[in-house]
Every structure is written in C-alpha cells, then in structure tokens.
Amino acid sequence: MALYKKKTATDDDKTASIAVEFAEFIKKVRSEGSYVTNKDLLKYIKLFEDELTLDNLPANTLRALCRLLNIQPFGSLEIIRFQLSLKLRALRADDQEIALEGGVDSLTVPELQAACRARGMRSLGMSEERLKEQLKQWLELSLNDKVPPSLLLLSRTIYLPEDITFMDHIAEETRQNLAEIEGDKVSYGARLHLIQNIEKAIDSERKAMEEAQKKEAAKKAEEEKLAAEAAKAAAEAAVDTEIKTMAELSVESPSLDKAPILEVTQPVTPKEKAVMDAASKLQIDEEHVQSIENVIHGNAISEAKYDIKELKEQINEHNE
C-alpha cells in the first residue's frame, strides 16, 4: 500500500512537472507568437488523453465541431457524438488511403483543397506548399493512435482566420485543462468565452467559403454566357460566309442554254393522214378541219366510222 501511494505520488509529481513545463511553453508561444508543431503537441499529449474526449466536450463545442466538418448538428448530443465518430472514422480511412497512394505530394491542388476542406482546415487563398504542410500535419496526428480524435479536431481550428494564433483557441482549452489538473476551478465564463471564440472563427470561415463559392458561381456563369455569345457569333458568321459563297458561285456559273425548245408532235395515224389529204384536195378551211379532228378524236368509235364513211361519199360525189 505504501509502495502504491509512493508510486501514485511520483506520477502526480511528474504530471504536475509536465503541466508546469507546458504552461511555460504556452507563455513562450504567446510572447513570441511562434507556430506550434506536431512535435510540440505530441510531447504533451498525455496531459489530454482523458480530458479531451467527445464524451466530455460540452454541447456548444460539439456543435461547433460539427459545423467545422460540414455536419448538420441536429438531434441529441448522443446523435451528434455518433456523427462526429463516423466522420472521424471516414477521415482516418481516407488518411490511410492517401498515405498508401504516395502521400500528400501525389495530390493535385484541387485534391489538396478538397482534403483540407473536409478536415476543417482552410483551403482557399493559400499556396500549394501551405496546403501540403497542414495536410501533412493532420496525417501525422491522424495516423498516430495516441492522439485523441477530439484533440485532432480542436487542433485544426488554428487554420481558420490568419490573424488568430494557436493560443486563441487550442491553448486556452489547454490552459483550462491544466488549471483543473492543478486543482484550480475554471469559471464557466472562461469556458463560454472560449466556445464563443471558436464558434466565431468557424462562422467566419463558413462565410468566407460561401463568398468564395458565390464568386466562383458568378465567374462560371459569366464564362458560360461569353461562350454562348461566342458560339452564336460564330454560327452567324458561318451562315454569312455560306450565303456569300453561294452568291459568288451563282455569278460565276455559265448561262443557261437558250436554244429553242422543239415541239414534240404526236405520230399521225393513217386515218388522220387520209382525212388531212382529203381536206387539202377539197381546200377545206381550217374550221372544217378542226371539226373533222374533233369527230375523229371522239370517244365513240362507231360515230367516228360513220363520219368517215359520209366524208368518203361526199368526196366521191365531188369527183364525179
């Protein structure tokens, strides 16, 4: 029992020593404004293994994390925690896939932006090197089983606005946890102030993303409009060119043959020839010939034969 108490006291002293060291580290970062690396964060990770879990985070912080990861924070706290757990599981699977496919260097700029945006980090208005750097830091923490998922999420808020440093969001939460470890009580006002700052940073990032999306949509609509106008102008120019070409061809083409059109006469039947010969002999006028033709071209064959017989008799009488 005495040995156990001695060991427990030793562990408490060691934890308190690390807490003091971390407090000095926080003070140094605040005064110098330097950037906190993953190495520094992993050095003090044991201080937060039991404190920063999804089960211990308050409702406002959970909802803020949901908005950070583009999750609708609807339902009870249990549902919100379950959604965050599923999101973290999906992100960790994606992290493993990225690591297997060649790491961050194998991703294009749009893929880097999409990956950072899915993990709650800034993706617009940043260079490719900065995107790769922050995604590498995420992968180092995500693929390390010793890092609590909630700490991984909270550490990403350092990338929201450029003017907010690491101390304005993560270090304040760390300071409150250290105060509780050392026996001090953190006021609810301080916790509320921290949560409000985190939510304000998330809202600013969301508004910036919405503005960027609106600008991108307006730019795309303008490009589509210009493309449609260009296509219309090209079509009109093609039609004008075609009309001009047809007009030139019609001017250069040879004139049509103006030779007289020969009349096509129908063959004369023997009966018609006999009637015409008889009419010429008798010097019958044109009206008489026309009446004869009308009789010949009649529909009734018997009437035509009868008229021809009469005509023959008249001719015989005239010859006599």
Automatic annotation (TrEMBL):
Where does the UniProt annotation locate this protein? Mitochondrion inner membrane
A cellular component term (GO) from this record? mitochondrial inner membrane
Q: Name one GO molecular function term.
A: ribosome binding
Kindly state which keywords UniProt assigns to this record, in alphabetical order.
Answer: Coiled coil, Membrane, Mitochondrion, Mitochondrion inner membrane, Transmembrane, Transmembrane helix
Where would one find coiled-coil regions in this protein? 195-238
Q: Name one Pfam family in it.
A: LETM1_RBD
Tell me what topology the record assigns in the membrane.
Single-pass membrane protein
Q: Describe the location of the Letm1 RBD domain by residue ranges.
A: 1-251
Primary localization class, coarse:
mitochondrion
Q: Kindly list the biological process annotations in GO that this record carries.
A: intracellular monoatomic cation homeostasis
Under which name does UniProt file this protein?
A: Letm1 RBD domain-containing protein
Instruction: Record the organism.
Output: Onchocerca flexuosa
